[in-house]
Design a protein that fits this description.
The chain has 211 residues and is α+β, with helices and mostly antiparallel strands. The chain has a single domain, classed as Pnp Oxidase, Chain A (Roll). It is 13% helix and 33% strand. The strands form 3 sheets. Strands 3-2-6-9-10-5-4 form a 7-stranded antiparallel β-sheet.
Length: 211
């Protein structure tokens, strides 16, 4: 994999601020020499504002997932690297979405049917898909996935690309506002598939490096 390929949303990416504009989320891209520590010593001062914090936290390597929702209007999709398992019994996972993003809005609607969605753990071979779903002004999830093998989840109705490491269908169990993000804790209703082999897609310092 070309480790120089830039990713287009932040490590805590989680949705778009509207239907056509990408939002970088809590963390940004790249690194800054001003945050380098000499000889392992502590920095002279705390990070200066949000930009420095974004740079510092971009050093956290995270797997990349694709969250998809079957909305009444269209199919929605966004890359999310702030994903984590929570519990095996009962089976729970959590995702962090930008609070004013469209995916967060849809999953927060009281009238939205059961608030279901799918999460695909992307493989290293799906770097192009991840970039498309993180791009500003992207088309609907249906149009992006039209060019690759995919299906719809039986429980969620959401689009699920083939070729990931695993895919889950989930229903919202709890929503927790957390600063400029919304933490969504969800019950896992179905493990759609699990690949027997493959490498994960990782985001680190604003890029998708090879393992």
């Amino acid at each position: 994999m070309d480790s120089s390929h830039p990713a287009k949303a932040g490590p805590l990416d989680g949705g778009t601020s509207d239907r056509g504009t990408s939002d970088r989320g809590a963390l940004g891209d790249g690194a800054s020499d001003s945050l380098a520590l000499a000889d392992g010593a502590a920095a002279d001062q705390a990070p200066d504002g949000g930009d420095a914090l974004r740079v510092a936290l971009s050093a956290w390597a995270a797997g990349v997932t694709l969250l998809t929702i079957a909305d009444d209007r269209d199919d929605i999709g966004t890359t999310v690297s702030a994903f984590m398992p929570v519990s095996l019994d009962p089976p729970l996972v959590a995702v962090s979405l930008i609070a004013d993003s469209y995916p967060a809005e849809v999953l927060s609607r009281p009238s939205f049917p059961a608030a279901r969605f799918a999460v695909t753990l992307l493989s290293s071979a799906q770097k192009v898909i991840a970039g498309q779903f993180a791009a500003a002004g992207r088309p609907s999830a249906r149009l992006i996935l039209d060019a690759v093998p995919h299906g719809r989840g039986a429980a969620s109705g959401a689009l699920i690309p083939s070729g990931g490491l695993a895919a889950l269908e989930c229903s919202v169990a709890r929503r927790v506002p957390a600063g400029d993000h919304l933490l969504v804790i969800a019950a896992v209703e179905n493990a759609v598939y699990t690949a027997e082999s493959g490498d994960p897609l990782i985001r680190f310092r604003g890029r998708y490096p090879a393992l």
